[in-house]
Amino acid sequence: MTRPLYHQDSAELSFTATVQTVNGSEVMLDATAFYPAGGGQSADHGLLRWNGGEAGVADTRKDKVTGLIWHKLDGTPPAVGTQITGEVDAARRWRHMARHSGEHLLAQSFVRINPAFAVDAVNMTHPECTLDLRGDPTEADVRAAETLLRETLARRRLTLETPTVSEADLPNYPLRRETKVRGQVRLVIFRGEDGQPFDVSACGGIHVPQASLAAPVVALRTERIRGRVTRVVFMAGEEASEYLGGIYRDCRALAQTFSVPVERLTERVEALRTDLTDSKADAAQLREKLARVLVEATPPDAQGLRWLELDDPALLLPVLSGVPTGEVRVALSEGGRCGVASARPEVHAGELLRGVLAVTGGKGGGKPELAQGSTLKPGGFLAAVRAALTSTQTS
Predict the structure, then answer these.
(1) How far is residue 97's CA from residue 41's CA, in Å, rounded to a whole number?
(2) How many Cβ atoms sit within 10 Å of the Cβ of residue 166?
(3) Which terminus has fewer CB within 10 Å in the chain: N or C?
(4) What are the residues facing 230 on neighbouring strands?
(5) pLDDT 10s digits, 299-323
(6) Neighbour count for residue 325 (Cβ, 10 Å)
(7) CA distances (Å), origin 350, targets 37, 71, 129, 378
(8) What is the C-alpha separation between 365 and 374, in angstroms, rounded?
């Protein structure tokens, strides 16, 4: 059995140990500060050094059957009996501890907002962590829980305690959620200076020694994943600070282009959105007017065909609208976009267009009165239309 030093002091990242077993690129030590992946938390990485060599620790895993902790090395492992010095990657460890502690603290905040918001599942393997909650929390609930936690971390000193207690003693602790662990149970408690616990959970993971080291804990968004289970995506600690700082820098740069302060950026963007919507409506009206002018300037020929060549594909649908009885209207725009509109019962627009595209290449189709598509040979499109119409009239 490997002695888990990470449970004694999660902030102690250097240690000495002896190699007990070597299995390929993996080594098992008699003690380790490297946390193995588990409980939604990723494994530690780092370095092993010994007299005459060193190797990086690329992964750490715990055998569920034997309880042995294996360290996967990216170099030649030391021999059995070698004394090593281990160094855990500090940046990775602290980020992972902040994620895990942030999950505990945020989950407790949700429970305090509404006891129905119980945890269904968690994942902390990426900077954007997830907390799946039952009870269907609303956006207002998410903001309330986030505010509660922010105020708690700013105003209370919550210290980590990790006692191991007997299963029989569990009723003496206000567990946030029931545990399936039996026998001896390791608890993770964040307790205030007044002696009152903020959160108590059965957990084998590692955490920051002070809850404030997990701050800020920020809920980014929510996703409905299945019936009455809502996924809260959050970030914590350094990663959250880096993310928020980057977002602010981007917002400030964008606000400067609009000559407004950051706090008025949303207002400015909404004003531009309104302007864009109005401009699109105006442009649509202008296209309709231009389409009418183009149609009126192009009389139908002897076949009752009105042929229009367009510079703008956006004019395609407007010129194909409002076709009078007895007329077939065909339009071709730049890039090969094309369409057919028919107000003659014997001319099916969709079938006519498909037949023409079979000759000129491309794809398209539609209903009896309107069809659109694209042709690969715009130069031969009109001739193919006329041939198809002549065939329809003589059949």
Answers:
(1) 8
(2) 10
(3) C
(4) 133, 224
(5) 988 888 999 999 999 999 999 999 9
(6) 7
(7) 60, 66, 51, 18
(8) 10
